[in-house]
Amino acid sequence: MNKQELIGTVADTSGLTKSDASKAVEAVFDAISSSLKKGDEVRLVGFGTFSISKRKASTGRNPRTGEPMTIKASTQPKFKAGKGLKDSVN
């Protein structure tokens, strides 16, 4: 399922127009992104938890040349599925 299919499904399920469903989906994504950007965690009970993790700088190798290179420290988003989501899939 891609983003447009998700918007269509939300519109059909909720009775919203596709335009309103698109705004709602975008608002949810924006709220999650801005919360993670601030360093907060987003916990949706029964669905899962969005969080961030910090990765330290490390040394790697350039796959083309084999030269050692430095990989910068970064912040990565993470998602851990909740029990309700796991149970619905299994």
Q: Could you characterize what this model shows?
A:
The protein is α+β, with helices and mostly antiparallel strands. The protein has three helices and five strands. A three-stranded antiparallel beta sheet has the order 1-2-5. The protein is elongated, with a radius of gyration of 18 Å. The two termini are about 20 Å apart.
The radius of gyration over CA amounts to 18 Å
Query: Which class do the helix and strand fractions yield?
Result: alpha+beta
**How much helical structure, as a percent, in the residues?**
40-55%
Instruction: Extract low-pLDDT stretches.
Output: none
Going across the biggest sheet, name each strand in turn.
1-2-5
- Terminal CA distance reads 19 Å
Q: Please report which band the strand proportion falls in: under 5%, 5-15%, 15-25%, 25-35%, 35-45% or over 45%.
A: 25-35%
* Count of helix runs: 3
Largest beta-sheet characterization: 3 strands, antiparallel
Large-scale geometry? elongated
| β-strand number | 5
Mean pLDDT: 94
What is the element string, with H for helices and E for strands? HHEEEEEH
